Amino acid sequence: MKVQHTAEKLMVALDYPSAEDARLLINRLQGIPCYMKVGMQLYYTAGPDFVRELKAKGYKVFLDLKMHDIPNTVKGGANSITRLGVDMFNVHAAGGVSMMAAAREGADEALAKDASLTSPLIIAVTQLTSTDQSTLNEEIGIPGTIEEAVVRYAKRTLQAGLDGVVASPLEVEAIKMACGPDFRTVTPGIRPTGSAVGDQSRIMTPAEAIRCGTDFIVVGRPITASPDPRRAAEQILEEMTTSC
What gap in Å lies between CA 11 and CA 241, rounded to an integer? Predict the structure, then answer.
């Protein structure tokens, strides 16, 4: 039971150019009750039908499209995504409180029209885990530390009525302190011990992230690029379980 609970905290990033490639991995992970994260690359080629396919297989789905537009457009997008039946989707916190609140409104309108739908978790992206201090200050133009910027966005997300944020595992404790223990954190930038860092700047191991109190960890290449993806996922779950 503990392993199943731990597996539900693991989100596997299906960063593939086609549904066929994603299915190969899914077949190898069969029986592991993890979340499946569908991002832009896969969604733009496989579309909503692939999300429905994952739901039909019994998976929880995080649709990672990072909506960032005027409030009315985001409201409509959130309505469509909710009707698709996903379990979680996201917007950019940089869009502001009104835009984030519009996402909640769009989801609520879809739920009001169809009682069979389940309310998805709606979360906001704070700062990408590829963002370092220099990029934040000099390129994006936000002063202060990364943690200060992330916590500021998290507070605005809570104010907008959303469920949590995407942030690096390094900021989880500060977010929980500012927004409360029930405010969810989804943490990319997870690299098992010995894995390549790649293009990530702010990272932790699965065990470290779980000890910090994060609700979900997102793992992509350490699983998807492994010669034995199932064993890679099982090793990550073992590491997570020892920290629960």
Answer: 15
